[in-house]
Write a structure and sequence with these properties.
alpha/beta; PfkB_dom; globular; 419 residues; Ribokinase-like; nine-stranded mixed beta sheet; Ketohexokinase-related; Carbohydrate kinase PfkB domain-containing protein; four-stranded mixed beta sheet
């Protein structure tokens, strides 16, 4: 459940300066929205996903549904808002700087009351997993809690600070975050400490994955019943990542051949990445330079910045979650008593793709999450899920926009898919 809309993508040679005019190199109109993109990736891998969202009753909305149907996504739970436009986003892709700039216009809000009338039960019928992209949080909370009551696992994406996201994350069995979310949410100065603090704030989550851009992705997986967690060695997360796992990835890359595991729609060959894990659970602790009070102040500032960027100034606390009872201040107090998390740590590299083959990173995170959805629903091992997700995200980056580059199942090797 989450966002769905239209993307207007303009590729330019270089990002314009203020008050400057320039011509686009390429202009495309495509379906967009984090949730819709992720479900498209999952559908092309072989799942049969259903989307719960709300779009306008306009022609854009008709086009959105047509595109989703073409990829095999069930849209019977997509609500329409007569007289309202569908959500859309302007995206400027800067070829020279390798950046993308997004300006989003939301559509009509989804009222929690609209989730009644049997929609909750109908949407969850036969579901193996429920995914939320962090938007439409009030209505999403109703669906998440109903899913939990029915024993259906919940995955929540934390791409950026959003109002109400803290409460939705508290319902999650699985969490995937962007590279910058942990530091914004927790205020921790060091990324490793921020990833650890994020997992600590989510005790219900069995695992948390944080994507790291060109640095790959890191997974913290809590031990299951019977795992030898009590005798786990104690180390900082930074020590584990930089002192053990990243050297192991480098050694694996040096020893492995350059095999192709995917051929992108452009014909570009993509090689699989590598995965390294600790031999078992590790008692992860924070770095000695950590300052909880400073982290709380930084998290508050990040919340205020997020609110301002969403034309919602003055409501920073609702973005940072500081007033939700499980916010930064409460976490800092708890951490002083029992700091850290015991977890097995896995680090995955990015897939092997020449830099010159990267056209656009828009939707790479959605491609990653769509692969995670596929992996969970088909019972893949977590390290294998991360390797698949890296390849699908790389394939996406070979074309402009979030969906054209998403690979079909036939473009991937059976070994990579776990079949």
């Amino acid at each position: 459940m989450g966002s769905c809309g239209v993307d207007y993508l303009a590729s330019v040679a270089a990002y314009p300066r203020p008050d400057e005019k320039l011509r686009t190199e390429k202009l495309e109109t495509q379906g967009g929205g984090n949730c819709a993109n992720a479900l498209t990736a999952a559908a092309r891998l072989g799942l049969s996903p259903a989307l719960v969202t709300k779009i306008g009753g306009d022609g854009l909305g008709d086009g959105i549904l047509t595109e989703l149907h073409a990829d095999g996504i069930d849209t019977q739970h997509v609500l329409r808002a007569p007289g309202h436009p569908s959500p859309f986003t302007y995206i400027i892709v800067d070829r020279q700087g390798g950046t993308r700039t997004c300006i989003h216009t939301p559509g009509a809000p989804l009222d929690p009351e609209e989730m009644g009338g049997g929609l909750l039960a109908s949407a969850l019928q036969g579901a193996a997993l429920v995914y939320f992209d962090g938007r439409l949080t009030e209505a999403a909370l109703l669906l998440a809690r109903e899913a939990r009551a029915r024993g259906i696992p919940v995955l929540v994406e934390a791409e950026r600070l959003r109002p109400g996201l803290e409460a939705l994350l508290a319902e999650a069995d699985f969490v995937v975050t962007s590279a910058h979310f942990p530091q914004d949410w927790t205020g921790e100065a060091h990324l490793a400490d921020a990833v650890l603090a994020t997992a600590e704030r989510l005790p219900r989550a069995a695992w948390v994955i944080t994507t790291l851009g060109t640095g790959g992705a890191v997974l913290l997986e809590r031990p299951g019943a019977g795992d030898a967690a009590a005798s786990a060695p104690e180390r900082t997360l930074a020590e584990v990542l930089e002192g053990e796992l990243r050297p192991a990835l480098a050694a694996a890359a040096a020893a492995a051949g350059a095999g192709t595991v995917c051929v992108a729609r452009t014909g570009q060959a993509i090689g699989g990445g590598h995965v390294a894990s600790t031999s078992g659970p590790v008692r992860l602790r924070y770095s000695s330079s950590r300052d909880p009070a400073q982290a709380a102040a930084q998290a508050h500032a990040a919340g205020e910045r997020a609110a301002a960027l969403n034309a919602d100034s003055g409501r920073g606390a609702s973005y940072s979650g500081a007033g939700a009872g499980t916010g930064v201040a409460a976490t800092a107090t708890a951490a002083a008593v029992a700091p850290g998390v015991t977890a097995q740590v896995t680090l995955a590299s990015i897939a092997q793709l020449p830099k010159e083959a990267v056209v656009d990173t828009t939707g790479a995170g959605d491609a990653f999450i769509g692969s995670v959805l596929y992996g969970i629903c088909t019972g893949m091992r977590l390290p294998d899920i991360m390797r698949l997700a890296a390849v699908v995200a790389a394939a996406k980056c070979t074309q402009l926009g979030a969906r054209p580059g998403l690979p079909a199942r036939s473009q991937l090797t059976c070994e990579l898919l776990g079949c």
